[in-house]
Write a structure and sequence with these properties.
Number of strands: 0
Helix content: 55-70%
Distance between the termini: 25 Å
Largest sheet: none
Strand content: under 5%
Length: 120
């Protein structure tokens, strides 16, 4: 998604208006909840809306959004910006958090006590 800098440009153009208009700010905040749930679906969470009630899964998806949005800003500023390197590092970071086949119920510590996404 961050690779679609042109599509993200509309979001960036809207942002100052969103910050000044309380009703629009509320609507975009609701949109972000949908955006976060969509990211949990990408991670294989089967009930993403329910999973957003888990503070760790919510935090994970908020972080995913921040990374994608932040990389989109950098790509929009510099058309030569190579997304491959940051996404390679981000993939390695996520791989240590979400281990395939190691599903755990929300709230349950695993091994070193770190939380990992699960199918909820």
């Amino acid at each position: 998604m961050a690779g679609s800098a042109e599509e993200f440009r509309v979001f960036f153009e809207m942002l100052p208006h969103v910050l000044r208009d309380e009703e629009l700010r509320h609507r975009v905040a609701l949109l972000y909840r949908w955006y976060w749930a969509m990211k949990l679906e990408w991670l294989g969470i089967t009930s993403p809306a329910r999973a957003l009630e888990d503070p760790d899964l919510l935090g994970l998806t908020q972080l995913l959004s921040a990374v994608i949005d932040g990389l989109a800003v950098q790509a929009a500023i510099d058309p030569a910006f190579d997304l491959a390197n940051p996404y390679r590092i981000f993939d390695a970071m996520l791989s240590t958090f979400a281990l395939p086949g190691k599903a755990v119920e929300p709230g349950q510590p695993v091994g070193d006590g770190r939380r990992r996404p699960t199918s909820v």
